[in-house]
Structures are given as structure tokens and as C-alpha cells.
């Protein structure tokens, strides 16, 4: 094994040139009826992944109807057209297709996967699902029971407790300040008309983004889009304005009897369209971006054994941007973890980063980028995300250049401006020793 | 259907052994001179490779009193070797734009990297190095023990469902190591030391106990050449022990447990039965059990879901689970999450009555056809995720199966008849071999 390190260094040096990017050839397709989609054609496997996303999400809930959109999305697979829930499910199984639904604070998504051999039938069923969901009262009551069961579980889950407490503090009365699933009270009070209203609020052409990947050509996709989406109404509920973010520095302890405290921490973040976003992205990779080599992982886990995992992440949502992180640590140790994290925040703000840290982060981020494009479904989802962020269709080819363009000075200047160690707020759920809620 | 909690995870801790297997033409395999098996799954759509090494050693192979040592050692393999500093392997993977990690189960421990395809050689160089060359310090031993205890806190002690599952497994397995948690019992984890870790390492980490699984944009001949160069030169361990494990005695009495915890918001009942696993050359019974689980609890149209959620409306969730990929006897299990106002007693009775009615009604031929159709389609969808196919080979080959068994499985599933399903149900799901658990709120403790 002599000379292993030298050989490896040589090997590493000669391959440090950027790995070949996955060649993702995106075409923009506009249907005869005027609906635009991004398409990656790949005829090697006889199926297509189709991603539909509607901007707005659970933030479109009408006043007093919190949870209506989340419940509505859960009801989409409970029957459509002439088919009640069980017959609908049998029809879907008989096509071996899958349709799944998701809602977030900013969007509602439909992810579909269907075989080429029965594409027409699958699309007809999905069309009914979007245009003619039944929302039968019996299904509404059954799924409401599932949502309420989930809400009762969330109320005793330390991660959910922390998330709700932090959001309430940060966003107040804005929709971001409460859970899109609603509350026991609000969900219990929802009726069938509320669900119909939620459906009308969400699904509209002026907020639609489409990505398709797989065994389909532009003409076929264009026809599919008009069949599936051509009859959607032009507009839906108004999207709320930006949230006012209030995060005072300090600590909030939420008492919960469990052996390990869960902490969520955060401060004001940076918008996705801010010119310094890539600088922040690189900075976060170094501070707490999820690799074993990040400063937070190194200091809190590797050196001190205080946690299994500690992470920081930028959360640039449509209506507010925050910079968040999380850690879980035994009640007797969490105070030290909080202290170390705050000091790492301070060290980054004060001393900045090293050239090696910058280079390592850039090689990692640029090299890891192609690993995301690992299947038809993931690529369709990425393309829809790009459209929602207003990115150009050739973005994939230029994205790594943007990462590489970030300089040491950029990061250090941004770290000094953005990172606010004393403004960082920790919401700690558990029975932490040596931590108390700060007084305001 | 709302996925508030992933209920399936309440009962199945290991990954679900789905039935989606890819066309055989994507897969090639060979064995190195020292006995190390190699499997290659090709997909040339993107210039990416996944490189994995699987060891036929998991928590069920641990010595008594050292529960958790397999997983502890997995963490310690990221420390120094003769030629790499602590953390340098992961840092090198990251500096090459890759991601790496590892996982431990009852029957295996596996390490992997996903990276640009032209970095495969570097991955092999580092992974083969840590197969035999780790160098641990006492500080690694102490700090990493704290990390695994925090991992136990996070995964188990902070989660009443996980604590309940741990207790249920202990009741299910009286004499087999599947009754001991993979992460370990806390009191034993606290005593794990250098000697325990190195002893497990020296016994099981050797090429003749390992499987290399490479998937993605690679040429099998090139993989073979590199594997010979890096793994082929490591001597086999001539003292590798057979995986002889204690077996469960016949169960002659139904077992019950109740677990109460103030953090439980949603009580539920689960029922499990010791069940045969997939065996090399003998997978018919396992295939029938898998289809039985799909018929009973595999989704919206399944028998239990239809009866308990749609007709009787006594449950918010129902499921049936069978994980056949296992070296030794596995379990078949039910989960019923009662609707508001329904007691666990009522939920359990509804489960019993519904299962009895299923046996009386027999298999719905149309439902069985739909399930088989979906299994055939899943072979098409699986080709979109060759890393998933690679994982299945890794799990199978560490669970006593062969490549031929993996490739035969889709056809065996298609050939199962309704009569075989009812027969296996009657043979395996008998009351006297059941374990029934209630997860309950501890109301007094939350005053």
C-alpha cells in the first residue's frame, strides 16, 4: 500500500475537471390550445412521467377554512366522474398507472406515471380526476378522519411541535404562520362546499407549470395537454402578498417529556432571485449543508458526539425567505449543541471561509448536480421547479458556472452581512437542561 | 388517502421487499478469485455510477451482549485507515462531487457512493482499503459511541412507535437475534469498545464475505478489471464462520403485549405471525405470502381496507405486510389504526372477523389479476431506477438467495394460484402462533 496517498492525489488531480453533465435536452412544447410544457423525450422505457404544479398551494385557503386545500388534495383519489372511490381505485390499478398528490405552502402538485400502451385511458382518468372529482360526503368524512388522526399525532411529535412554534413566531397571521393541514377545529368544521371552493381556488391555467419526461413526442404531448388541461378555468384564488418575517434572537423552550430535545433554529434568509443567492448557497454548503464535512457536522457530531445529525438549509419560499437549521440532542447535551451552533454562526460571520473550503464546496456542488437527474419522475419535477422559479430553459447547462463564479470575497462579505449569530432563534422542544426561554 | 404518518413504517423497519425486478439483460455477474461476488446493473442514460459493497454480516450475526456492534462498526469505517485520515474518504467523495453513506440491517451491512461514472476507480481504491485497513483511536471509539446513542435517541427513544416495534420484535423472537434491535439495546451499546468493534471487523470484513454491486453507466468488463485490481488482491479470510443462527422453537401459545406511552396520540393494534422467508430455489410459499399481503392490505381495493375503512368505517388505516427477503424466518403482519371512538378491542375483533370472512370468501380473481398486472408493470417502471435494482441484488445475495432466485421471482409471482394463497394463509396465520400488540395512550401521565 506504499504510495497510496500519492497515487490517489494524482488520480484526484487528473479527474478534478468537471464531470460530464447529464445531457438533459429540454424542449419547450406549446399545445394547440396554448398550454406550455417542458419535455425531455426518452423512448428507452415505455412510460411517461408527468408533473403538474399549480402555484399557491395551501396558502390559498380561504379565511377560517385552514386545511381545506390539504383535505381537497387528499380527496382527489377518492372518486371522479361516474366512479366512486373503490371503482376509481380499481380503474387506476387496472391501468398500472399511479397518480400522486402533494401540497406545500407554495404549490399543489400532481405527479403521474403511466405506461405507453394505455396512455390515452390513463389521461382520460386523470382528466376526470382534475375536472370532475366527486368529493362524496362519505369519502370526505373518511379522509377527514385520517387528517384528524394525523393532526393528533403531529401534536405529540417533537419535530412538528417545533415546526409549528417556529412558524407561528416567524410569520404571525400570514398563511405561512400556520400548518396547511389545518387544526382539529378548522378541519372538523369543513363541509363539502368548502372542498369544492378549495378545488376552484387551486386549479387554474394562470398558475400551471408542466414537465414531462419519457416515451412521448412533442405532438403527442401537445394533444395530451389540451385534453387534460384545456378546460381548466383561467384563474383561481388570489395569491397572498409577502409575509413579514419576525425572528428575534434567543431561545424558546416548549416543554415536552421526551429524552432527546429537538431544536429548530433560524434567522432571516435570502430570496431565490437575489443576485447573491448562489453565494449564500455555497456558504451554506460549508456551514451546514448536509455533508459529513460541513462545519456544523464536524463540530457538533464528529468532534463532540452531541448529535446524530445537524444541518442548515436555505428556505427561499415564494412569499418569504428564511435560513433554517435543525439538531436533535439528549436533554443533558442540547444546551452545548446550541452554544456550539451559535458560535459556528459567529465564526463564519467574523472569520469567513478558507480557499480550500470554497473549492471543496464548489467541486461537491457542481459534481453532485448531475446526480439529481436520476429518473424520469425526478427530472420532470426538477423542470417544473425551474419554471416556477422563472429560470431559463438552458439553465441546467449554466448552473455550475454560477456556482464556480462565487469567490471567497463574495462568501465572506455575504457571511458578514447575512449571518446574525445573536439574531438566531432556537425553538427547543423537550426537557433541555440549562436552557430557558429568553424574555422579550 | 392521506399519508399523515407513514403507517407502513410503524411496522416494517427494514425496507419493503417490493417485487419489481428488471429485465435480466441489464444484469451481469462474476466472482473474483478470492470469492468476492460482483453484480453489475447497466444503465447508460446518465454518466453516473453507484458503487456498493455489501457484507454478509448484520446485527443478527453479533455476539451476545454486544448488540449494536455491527452498526457501530459501520460508523467507525468512516474513520482513519492506514492511508486515509478520519473523514477523508467521505471528504474525497464529496470533493469529487459524490455522495456516500452506509446502512446496517439484521442480515447485512452496506457501504455506497454515488458519483460521476469516471470516478469509479477512486471509489474502489478507497472502499477496498477500508475493507481490511481501518485504524481506530480511543477517541473515535468514545465520540462515535455518543453519536450512535444520539442516533438511538432520535430513531427509537424519542418515538413511541419505534419503542413499541422494538418490544413487539422481542416478543416475536424468543430465541433468534431478530428479536434484538439493529441499533442495539442501550445498556449494551454503552459498553461497546475497541475490542468489540475490531473483533466483528476481523471476523466478517473480508472479500469472501462481500458482494460488490455496481450500477449505472459502466462496462461490465471494465468493472471486472478494476475489481480484480482493487478487491481481487485482498486475501480471503479462511476462518470465515458459517452463519449459524439459533432458530425459533415452535410457538405453541398466542402472545400479547400492551405498550403505553404518554407521547402516543393515535393508538393502534398490530398482529404478527412468524412466517417462512424466501429461500434459494424455494420461493413459492413466499410468493404466495406476498400476494396474500397485497390482497389483504395492499391498497385501497384490498380486502381489509375495503371492509374496515369503507364498509364498517372502524379504521383510519389498515395494512398487511410481508417482507420475504430475510436470511431466517420473517413475519407476516397486520396493522389496524382505529377510527375515532373505536377501541383497540373493537379494532382487533373487526380484524379477526374480516380475516375469517376473507378465508370464507376466497380470493377475488379479478383483484388477483390486477395485482399481477401491476407487478408486471413494475418491471417496466423499475428500469427507470437501476440503483433500486442494484439494492435488491445486494439484499438478496446477503439474505441467502442467488442471482437466479432474484431473476426467477417475477415469474414465480405470476404463477401463484388462488388455492395456493388460501393454503399458505391457513398454514401460516394461525392464532396460536400470533403476537398481538396494542400501542396505547398513557392518559394518566399527561395530566
TrEMBL record, chain A:
Domain (Peptidase M16 N-terminal) spans: 41-177
Question: Carries keyword Signal?
Answer: yes
- Recorded protein name is Insulinase family protein
> Which residue positions does the secretion signal occupy?
1-22
Highest taxon listed in the record's lineage: Bacteria
Q: Which Pfam families match?
A: Peptidase_M16 (PF00675), Peptidase_M16_C (PF05193)
Protein keywords? Signal
Annotated ranges, domain Peptidase M16 C-terminal: 190-363
User: Which molecular function terms from Gene Ontology are attached?
Assistant: metal ion binding
Q: Which organism is it from?
A: Parasedimentitalea huanghaiensis
Automatic annotation (TrEMBL), chain B:
Single GO molecular function: metalloendopeptidase activity
What Pfam families does its record include? Answer: Peptidase_M16, Peptidase_M16_C
Ranges for domain Peptidase M16 C-terminal: 192-375
What does the UniProt keyword field contain? Hydrolase, Metalloprotease, Protease, Signal
Record has Signal as a keyword: yes
The domain of life for this entry's organism is Bacteria
Q: Where is the Peptidase M16 N-terminal domain?
A: 38-183
For the keyword Amino-acid biosynthesis, the answer is no
Q: Which cofactor does it need?
A: Zn(2+)
How far does the signal peptide extend, from start to end residue?
1-22
Q: Please report which protein family the annotation says this sequence is part of.
A: Belongs to the peptidase M16 family.
Give the protein name, as stated in the record: Insulinase family protein
Q: Which organism is it from?
A: Parasedimentitalea huanghaiensis
Amino acid at each position: 500500500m506504499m504510495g497510496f496517498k500519492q497515487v490517489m492525489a494524482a488520480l484526484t488531480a487528473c479527474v478534478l475537471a468537471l464531470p460530464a453533465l447529464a445531457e438533459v435536452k429540454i424542449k419547450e412544447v406549446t399545445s394547440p390550445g396554448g398550454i406550455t410544457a417542458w419535455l425531455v423525450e426518452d423512448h428507452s422505457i415505455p412510460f411517461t412521467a408527468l408533473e403538474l404544479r399549480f402555484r399557491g398551494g395551501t396558502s390559498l385557503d380561504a379565511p377560517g377554512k385552514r386545511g381545506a386545500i390539504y383535505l381537497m388534495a387528499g380527496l382527489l383519489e377518492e372518486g371522479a366522474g361516474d366512479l366512486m372511490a373503490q371503482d376509481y381505485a380499481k380503474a387506476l390499478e387496472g391501468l398500472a398507472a399511479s397518480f400522486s398528490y402533494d401540497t406545500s405552502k407554495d404549490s399543489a402538485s400532481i405527479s403521474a406515471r403511466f405506461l405507453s400502451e394505455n396512455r390515452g385511458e390513463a389521461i382520460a382518468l386523470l382528466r376526470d380526476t382534475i375536472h370532475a372529482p366527486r368529493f362524496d360526503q362519505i369519502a370526505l368524512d373518511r379522509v377527514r378522519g385520517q387528517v384528524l388522526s394525523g393532526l393528533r399525532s403531529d401534536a405529540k411529535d417533537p419535530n412538528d411541535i417545533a415546526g409549528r412554534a417556529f412558524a407561528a413566531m416567524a410569520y404571525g397571521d400570514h398563511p405561512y404562520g400556520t400548518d396547511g393541514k389545518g387544526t382539529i377545529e378548522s378541519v372538523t368544521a369543513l363541509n363539502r362546499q368548502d372542498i369544492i371552493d378549495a378545488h376552484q381556488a387551486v386549479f387554474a391555467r394562470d398558475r400551471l407549470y408542466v414537465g414531462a419526461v419519457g416515451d412521448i413526442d412533442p405532438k403527442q404531448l401537445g394533444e395530451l395537454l389540451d385534453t387534460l388541461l384545456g378546460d381548466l378555468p383561467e384563474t383561481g384564488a388570489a395569491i397572498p402578498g409577502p409575509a413579514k418575517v419576525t425572528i428575534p434572537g434567543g431561545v424558546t423552550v416548549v416543554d415536552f417529556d421526551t429524552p432527546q430535545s429537538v431544536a429548530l433554529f433560524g434567522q432571516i434568509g435570502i430570496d431565490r432571485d437575489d443576485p447573491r443567492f448562489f453565494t449564500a448557497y455555497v456558504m451554506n454548503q460549508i456551514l451546514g449543508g448536509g455533508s459529513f464535512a460541513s462545519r456544523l457536522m464536524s463540530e457538533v457530531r464528529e468532534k463532540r458526539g452531541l448529535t446524530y445529525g445537524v444541518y442548515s438549509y436555505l428556505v427561499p419560499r415564494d412569499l418569504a425567505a428564511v435560513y433554517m437549521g435543525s439538531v436533535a440532542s439528549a436533554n443533558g447535551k442540547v444546551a452545548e449543541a446550541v452554544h456550539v451552533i451559535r458560535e459556528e454562526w459567529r465564526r463564519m460571520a467574523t472569520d469567513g471561509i478558507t480557499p480550500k473550503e470554497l473549492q471543496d464546496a464548489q467541486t461537491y456542488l457542481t459534481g453532485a448536480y448531475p446526480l439529481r437527474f436520476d429518473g424520469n419522475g425526478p427530472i420532470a419535477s426538477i423542470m417544473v421547479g425551474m419554471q416556477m422559479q422563472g429560470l431559463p430553459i438552458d439553465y441546467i447547462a449554466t448552473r455550475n458556472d454560477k456556482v464556480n463564479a462565487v469567490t471567497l470575497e463574495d462568501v465572506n462579505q455575504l457571511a458578514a452581512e447575512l449571518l446574525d449569530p445573536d439574531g438566531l432563534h432556537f425553538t427547543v422542544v423537550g426537557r433541555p437542561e440549562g436552557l430557558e426561554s429568553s424574555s422579550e | 388517502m392521506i399519508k399523515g404518518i407513514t403507517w407502513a413504517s410503524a411496522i416494517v423497519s427494514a425496507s419493503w421487499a417490493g417485487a419489481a425486478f428488471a429485465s435480466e439483460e441489464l444484469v451481469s455477474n462474476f466472482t473474483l478469485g478470492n470469492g468476492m461476488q460482483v453484480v453489475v446493473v447497466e444503465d447508460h442514460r446518465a454518466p453516473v455510477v453507484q458503487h456498493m459493497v455489501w457484507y454478509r454480516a448484520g446485527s443478527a450475526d453479533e455476539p451476545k451482549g454486544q448488540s449494536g456492534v455491527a452498526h457501530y462498526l459501520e460508523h467507525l469505517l468512516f474513520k482513519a485507515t492506514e492511508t486515509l485520515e478520519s473523514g477523508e474518504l467521505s471528504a474525497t467523495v464529496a470533493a469529487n462531487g459524490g455522495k456516500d453513506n452506509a446502512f446496517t440491517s439484521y442480515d447485512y451491512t452496506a457501504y455506497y457512493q454515488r458519483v460521476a461514472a469516471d470516478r469509479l476507480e477512486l471509489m474502489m481504491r478507497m472502499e477496498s482499503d477500508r475493507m481490511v485497513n481501518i485504524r481506530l483511536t480511543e477517541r473515535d471509539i468514545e465520540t462515535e459511541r455518543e453519536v450512535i446513542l444520539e442516533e438511538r435517541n432520535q430513531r427509537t427513544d424519542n418515538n413511541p412507535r419505534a419503542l413499541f416495534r422494538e418490544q413487539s420484535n422481542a416478543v416475536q423472537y424468543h430465541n433468534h437475534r431478530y428479536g434484538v434491535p439493529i441499533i442495539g439495546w442501550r445498556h449494551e451499546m454503552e459498553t461497546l469498545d475497541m475490542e468489540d468493534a475490531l473483533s466483528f471487523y476481523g471476523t466478517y470484513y473480508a472479500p469472501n464475505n462481500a458482494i460488490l454491486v455496481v450500477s449505472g453507466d459502466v462496462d461490465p468488463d471494465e468493472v471486472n478489471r478494476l475489481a480484480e485490481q482493487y478487491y481481487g488482491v485482498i486475501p480471503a479470510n479462511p476462518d470465515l464462520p458459517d452463519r449459524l443462527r439459533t432458530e425459533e422453537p415452535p410457538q405453541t401459545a398466542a402472545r400479547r403485549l400492551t405498550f403505553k406511552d404518554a407521547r402516543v396520540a393515535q393508538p393502534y393494534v398490530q398482529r404478527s405471525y412468524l412466517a417462512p422467508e424466501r429461500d434459494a430455489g424455494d420461493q413459492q410459499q413466499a410468493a404466495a405470502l406476498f400476494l396474500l399481503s397485497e390482497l389483504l392490505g395492499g391498497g385501497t381495493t384490498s380486502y381489509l381496507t375495503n371492509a374496515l375503512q369503507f364498509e364498517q368505517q372502524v379504521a383510519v388505516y389498515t395494512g398487511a405486510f410481508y417482507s420475504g427477503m430475510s436470511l431466517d424466518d420473517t413475519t407476516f403482519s397486520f396493522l389496524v389504526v382505529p377510527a375515532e371512538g373505536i377501541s383497540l378491542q373493537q379494532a382487533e375483533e373487526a380484524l379477526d372477523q374480516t380475516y375469517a370472512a376473507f378465508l370464507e370468501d376466497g380470493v377475488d380473481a379479478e383483484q388477483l389479476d390486477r395485482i399481477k398486472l401491476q407487478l408486471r408493470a413494475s418491471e417496466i417502471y423499475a428500469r427507470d431506477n437501476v440503483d433500486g435494482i442494484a439494492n435488491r441484488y445486494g439484499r438478496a445475495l446477503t439474505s441467502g438467495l442467488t442471482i437466479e432466485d432474484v431473476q426467477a421471482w417475477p415469474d414465480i409471482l405470476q404463477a401463484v394460484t388462488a388455492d395456493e394463497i388460501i393454503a399458505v394463509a391457513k398454514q401460516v396465520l394461525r392464532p396460536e402462533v400470533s403476537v398481538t400488540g396494542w400501542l396505547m395512550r398513557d392518559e394518566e401521565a399527561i395530566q
